[in-house]
Amino acid sequence: MCAVDTEERRRGILDTARRDGSVDVNRLADLFRVAKETIRRDLHTLEEHGLVRRTHGGAYPVESAGFETTLATRTTRHVPQKSRIAAAAADLLGDAETVFVDEGFTPQLVAEALPRDRPLTVVTASLAVATVLADAEKTAVLLLGGRVRGGTLATVDHWATRMLAGFVIDLAYVGANGISREYGLTTPDPAVSDVKAQAVRSARRRIFTGVHTKFGAVSFCRFAEVGDFEAIVTDAGLPSAEAQRYSLMGPQVIRV
Question: Which residue numbers delimit the HTH deoR-type domain (predicted)?
């Protein structure tokens, strides 16, 4: 194949990964009528460019400035792992009375796992999180104002960050699109990054929640360092050796 054909095929592979959430080597080979080894080379090149992460037999897209999954998509992936992470993260609440809960599906599950039998004030930019907690009698919900992003149903921009800057929060549950030892915690959108960064600044304690696929991934905007967090809660898909490397940077790493 000529170079143009190769580029078109790789663009098609990336488009398929972003549309379907993941790709399989065998199916791609059939789709593009090339050898499996050709597809593996394509995936290797796309991974080198930070566009996909390879898995056994395939790959999934990395979120970037030009691509971000929607909240609806996130509710369909790694759900058992996210549920375990959320339960373990909620167990770390301690004596916190004011809590920030980030946007995203895993933080939404954290919100569902928070105790309902004690007074809590929850600050969030997420319409989904606010909805989950709205009927909890002992929970006061403060929804940050601002522009609502359609894909994630969360508020951003200066209204949200200014409101958040006025609080001193006991504990923040924070998510990210990527976490790496070199680049810290990252997210594709600068407006989202600003809200997350302010949550980190406003909180006395910070806990990161995210599935193992987030680790090693790097997105466009950095908003925090690994060492800013007292704990990282993830699933057992993160190798124990890698968990140990993160723990050496400061946080307790909990794999569930």
Answer: 6-61
Spans of all domains in the chain: 6-61, 71-255
Q: Which fold has domain 6-61?
A: Arc Repressor Mutant, subunit A (1.10.10)
Check residue 169 and report its DSSP letter.
E
Q: pLDDT, tens digit, for every residue of 116-170?
A: 999 999 999 999 999 999 999 999 999 999 999 988 899 999 999 999 999 999 9
Do 71-255 and 6-61 fall under one CATH topology?
no
Domain 71-255 has CATH 3.30.450.20: no
